[in-house]
Specification:
Elements: E1 5-9, E2 21-26, E3 30-38, E4 43-52, E5 55-60, E6 71-80, E7 87-96
Antiparallel strand pairs: 1-2, 2-5, 3-4, 3-6, 6-7
Length: 100
């Protein structure tokens, strides 16, 4: 399995844009689970839980119906190929700043 790519895209902070966009690229069709955990390790929301075709995807937390208070979180992305034998898991720290 060629590994997916997962990263945050930060833009200039403003009242309208205070959260990064979560971007990921899949080299092959994969089952994707993108979750947010609090600092204690409790899952607080699931952003994506579906099979996606190969390609690039963006999840914009600013336009999401799911809101995060300021604080530190962890985003976990897991991708599984069709055989479910190969998997990719990546965890990234996400800091949400208070609104200006």
């Amino acid at each position: 399995m060629v590994f997916p790519d997962f990263y945050f895209k930060h833009e200039a902070m403003s009242k309208e844009c205070s959260l990064p966009k979560l971007e990921y690229a899949l080299p092959v069709k994969s089952k994707v689970v993108l979750e947010v955990y609090d600092i204690a390790g409790d899952r607080i929301m699931t952003l994506v839980d579906e099979t996606k075709s190969a390609g690039q995807y963006i999840y914009d937390l600013n336009t999401s119906q799911k809101k995060l208070n300021h604080g530190t979180y962890y985003c976990r992305m897991a991708a599984y190929d069709d055989s479910a034998r190969a998997q990719y898991v990546n965890v990234r720290k996400l800091t949400v700043a208070a609104s200006l």
